[in-house]
Amino acid sequence: MLARHGPSATLYTRTVWTGTPTLVAAGSGGTISAGTYWGTVVAIVDGADKYGGGKASVTCVDNDKVVWTWTKHTGATGYKLYWKTDPTFPTPALLATVGDVATYTDTTGTVTAGSPDMKVTLPYYYFVSSTVSAKQVATVRQDQQVHSGGKIVQADIVIRVPYDTTVSELDEITYQSIRYQIVLIGQPTYRTAVTYKNLHCKRMTEWR
To answer: Which helix H or strand E contains 13, and what residues bound it?
Structure first.
């Protein structure tokens, strides 16, 4: 096990919230006309449209209704739902403004003036932390570059973690009280039938 070779580390998995809804045509009981429609959910944070941008489509028959569901955004006080046959949502496209909920049933498809500002409603990135076994296996010289899969990156150290650790480039890791960004995941290496990942890490200049 890696734990016996060195301290554990805190891995910060980069996660994204885009507001992409799930749209389900629920059959009779509404007045929505037949057609293919697009929907998007925008989170209201601090009184303003802040995050979203993910889109989904649904095909309806005449007199349909549609059930919307989405994952809540931490910190949101409400959501705006936009609906249109055009996935760019030109106004009028505002279907509803709702509170701190994660579902909405639409029976009419009626929209009012409004369109999502795609310059504002960007994906929201946040980090989920977990503890992993880790060991520093190399220090990278400042004049040394790493070449892998056609990429050239500059790293400060290489940290080894178990191969089954779920990790991606741009995730972050705190090792021996220093925060790093993972810039490259090296090829797996084998030691006594145990498989590891080598994380090439760049020291961050500021903490999130």
So the answer is: strand 8-17
117 in the same domain as 26: yes
63's tokens = 């007199």
Last residue of a domain, one of 62, 91, 122: 122
User: Kindly report the CA angle at 173 between 168 and 175, in degrees rounded to 5?
Assistant: 145
Eight-class DSSP state of 4: G
Total of domains in the chain: 2
**Cα(130)–Cα(175) distance, rounded to whole angstroms?**
12
The answer to whether residue 74 is domain-embedded is yes
d(CA 125, CA 53): 13
Residue 185: alpha-carbon gap to chain centroid = 19
Instruction: Report how far residue 133's alpha carbon sits from residue 131's, in angstroms, rounded to the nearest whole number.
Output: 7
In terms of residue numbers, what domain contains 106? Answer: 19-122
Give residue 120's identity as a one-letter amino acid code: V
d(CA 155, CA 141): 8
Taking the model in full, what pTM does it have?
0.66
Position 5 scores a pLDDT of 46
Question: How many distinct helices (H) and strands (E) make up the chain?
Answer: 0, 18
pLDDT bracket for residue 175 (50, 70, 90): very high
